[in-house]
Design goal:
alpha+beta, two-stranded antiparallel ribbon, 2 helices, 6 strands, Prokaryotic metallothionein
Amino acid sequence: MAVCETCGNDYDMAFEVRAQGAVHTFDCFQCAIEAMAPICEHCGTKVIGHGVQSGEHWYCCAHCAREEGTKGLVDRVTAGTTA
């Protein structure tokens, strides 16, 4: 069995997450999110979706980024725009 690094539960179905050269062990996704998800620098919510990044700053959405003064981030591309 393996011990969850967030809650300490010794669980036979624990899993590992490998990220940025480190290995983390959790017993559930909730503990993984608590330990690893960035926090929106405007509203404080955990960023569990794509979120948006401006430099080293993370936000849950473009609205929160704009509220912190970031320019140019949008939640959606205008119809017909291609990458």
